Model the fold of this input.
Amino acid sequence: MAETSRVPPIYGLLAEFETPQALVTAATKVRDAGYRRIDAFSPFPIEELADAIGFRDRRLPMFVLVGGLAGMVAGLGLEYWVSAVAYPLNIGGRPHASWPSFIPVAFETTILCAAFAAVFGMLALNGLPMPYHPVFNAPRFSAATRDRFFLVVEATDPKFDRMQTRKLFDDLHAREVTELAH
Done:
């Protein structure tokens, strides 16, 4: 009985480029060719690359904003509860709920919770920790941390065709094209 699986036989095709400009140009042309499930790897950030691969995920700033607001509300709420409800003390004749004196703690909890939201949101959105990724199977991929630039088209892309995608990479003057196993 044949096994029916939705997993394609390969993860995708990995193309190696020698310069960041070649990678950005290739990513732009691959995206213009209609591919959407693409990813790029470089040893340093390339500003134009996010637009070239069509990266549009803007959820992290929302996570940070929500985390900061939650921290501010929690800080103000804690101070109000402590000062006005649990331990109401008359200090210098100020009212129990003296909002100006609450600002330093509210500011600190806002920054703390926004920072936690940024770190954990980034980890969640990037799928980290990721102990295994198919690109690690490529023999030359370790050069991505030194001086090489890589572009992946995943096999799950609706436009992916092994031969046509390889031809596209060859036309883009990729130094080497590697099929990635799962």
